[in-house]
Specification:
With 137 residues, the chain is α/β, with parallel strands linked by helices. 46% of the residues lie in helices and 20% in strands. It has a five-stranded mixed β-sheet with strand order 1-2-3-4-5, sandwiched between helices. The termini are far apart.
Length: 137
Amino acid sequence: MYSVQNPAGRLVVTRMPEAPTLEEAKSFRTELARVMMTLSKARVLLCSDFRAHSLYEREVTDYFEAMMRHDNLLLERCAIVVEPNTTGFQIFNSVRSVNARDKRIASTNPLEAYRYLAERATRPECLALAHHLGVDP
C-alpha cells in the first residue's frame, strides 16, 4: 500500500512499495491531490520513492503519465527514486515523455534526488527529505 505525507513546509513525500493496480493508482492520486491542496497555493516539492516495484501494467503507466501532465502546474520540482531495473526504466520513460521542463527527475540514486529537491527546499524540508530517502547529505 502507498503512503502520502506532508512532513514539512511544502514538501510532500510518497512511497509505493509495490506496483499498484489501476484502482490503487487512482486512490493514490486522490490522496496526493488532497494533501497538495492543503498547502494552499504553494508550489510543491514532491519526492516519490518507487523502489522495490514490479512491472506496472500498461494502463497504470498510462494513468501515471496523464497524472504527471495534469499535475505539473502544482509542482515546483519532483524527484522519483526508482530501482535500476525494468520498472525503473518504465518510470524514466514516463518522466521523459511528459516533457516537464526540468521540473522532474527520475533517479536510481536517492542522494541525487535529495540534491535536486534541496536546491529549492528550506532547512526543515531538507531534514524531512533526508529522513524520507534515508540519506545523509
